[in-house]
Amino acid sequence: MNLIQVHVWRGGAKGAFQSFEVPRHASQTVLDVVTHIQRTLDATLAYRYACRVGMCGSCAMTVNGVARWTCRTHVDKVVKNDQIEIAPLRNLPVIRDLVTDMREFFDKWARAKGSFESDRTRQDDFAVLPPEDENRKQVDAAIECIGCGVCYSACDVVAWNPDYLGPAALNRAWTLVKDERDTAGVARLRAIAGDAGCHACHTHLSCTERCPKQLSPTASIAGLKRAVALAALRGEL
Question: Which of 24, 78, 178, 226 has its Cα between 20 and 30 A from that of 171?
Answer without folding.
Answer: 78
